[in-house]
Amino acid sequence: MLPFGIWLTIVLGLQYSLIFICCAVLLKLPTKRFAQLFDSLFGFKIQNDDDHIIIINVCGDNFELSKKLTSRIPFALVLSMCLMVIVVVFIDGCILSMRFMYSNELCSENTPYCYLFKTRLSWYHSFHNLVCQPNESVVSSNISADHVLCYGFIVSNQTTIDIINQLGICSGILAIVETAYPLTYRFGHHPIGMICLVCLNCGILIAEVIFTIIHFQISYMTFILMNLMAFLITTIIYLQYKKRKMRKSRLLISTLNLNQF
């Protein structure tokens, strides 16, 4: 059983490495292929047929896609984050399962490897590791622990139906993102909508911090999905800011041209 620090580094490292690799691959794609990929996922239509500079229509707003990193990064990060979440959800359901538990709960045969933590504020430092026996108390009477993080490899217990069901869950998450992202972007068109999105994003981040501190018993997948939601909202806020900035630039240029005449 790996020490908690090494295990946590591997888990988080694989997730962020997946985002980095996907983002790097997407940034290397030809501009037209990149725009077509984004169009197939979210339905944002391509406005021209140029191979170097593509104008993509995002819910009525035109954005320029080129080989410049600044024009691609927001869209590449959205696609990379979605792919990472889908992969993590599939792995959690079919290969490696993780579960937060309280000290008075019984062990599960699916998650026998456990890390014990003394206090709610010591989630980053495990003081004891153990292999938990099924249907026994996760923490014995001679050990004082506030909460427990358990994991286990469940790939050997999976059937074809289990894998198909998990693929269905992944497809469902992707379908929700495909529908919710454009709707949320349209909602952000209005000033009140933008304020609501900023407040919602801050609320999600604050909730994550609070849940982490108090170790509220929610699944690891819930944290992942909350991160996805916060990330998508952040990209929407950035695109809305970029749109308003471009609009102000056009107005300024128009005003200068009128003054010259």
Automatic annotation (TrEMBL):
The entry's keywords? Membrane, Transmembrane, Transmembrane helix
Q: Where are the transmembrane segments?
A: 6-27, 75-102, 163-183, 195-214, 220-241
**What's the protein name?**
Uncharacterized protein
Q: Which superkingdom does the taxonomy of this entry point to? A: Eukaryota
Q: Does the keyword Membrane apply?
A: yes
Q: Which organism is it from?
A: Adineta steineri
Organism placement in taxonomy: Eukaryota, Metazoa, Spiralia, Gnathifera, Rotifera
